[in-house]
Amino acid sequence: MALKNKLGVNDSVELARLEEKIRDVNIAKNNLKMGTDNELLKNLDKLHTTELGVERIKRNLSLDTDDVVEWCKTKINSANAVITRNGKNWYVNVDKCILTVNAYSYTIITAHKEKK
Fold first, then answer.
1. How is the chain split into domains, by residue range?
2. d(CA 52, CA 107)
3. pLDDT of 25-73, one tens digit each?
4. What is the CATH number that goes with domain 36-116?
5. Which residues of 62-75 are buried (b: 16+ CB within 10 A; e: fewer)?
């Protein structure tokens, strides 16, 4: 933050561009570490949720879609999705959202907006 205060307007714009590039590189590194043969990606056809899950996801993400599961599949399959597994769940961080999927049943448990 101290560095930003000493920079001019053009320098601040360039710094913001560099920070964004660093973020993109870190996302790419995470995706490479996980490999493209991720079990969740291999089993997208098994992805499902419950009726309550549909309501919860729509409410938490303010979605206006008829097919929540298809929306989630698209997000999970996107190039900028960061997929991690912790215990029994997969966590997909994509477009400022976090999707939680059970690793054994492939049930979408919940989704929420990423906290700032």
1. 1-34, 36-116
2. 12
3. 666 655 554 554 589 999 999 999 999 999 999 999 999 998 999 999 9
4. 3.30.2310
5. eeeeeebbebbbeb
Cβ contact 81:94 at 8 Å = yes
pLDDT higher than 80, residue 1: no
Degrees to nearest 5, angle at CA 94 with 93 and 98: 45
The pLDDT of residue 18: 83
Six-digit token pair at 14? 């360039």
Beta carbons of 92 and 76 less than 8 angstroms apart: yes
Beta bridge partners of 113: 97
Instruction: Write the pLDDT tens digit of every residue in 64-100.
Output: 998 999 999 999 999 999 999 999 999 999 999 999 9
Selection from 94, 89, 42 nearest residue 72 by Cα: 94
- Diameter of the chain by CA atoms? 53
Tokens of 24: 């993109």
> Can you tell me which residue has the tokens 């698209």?
74
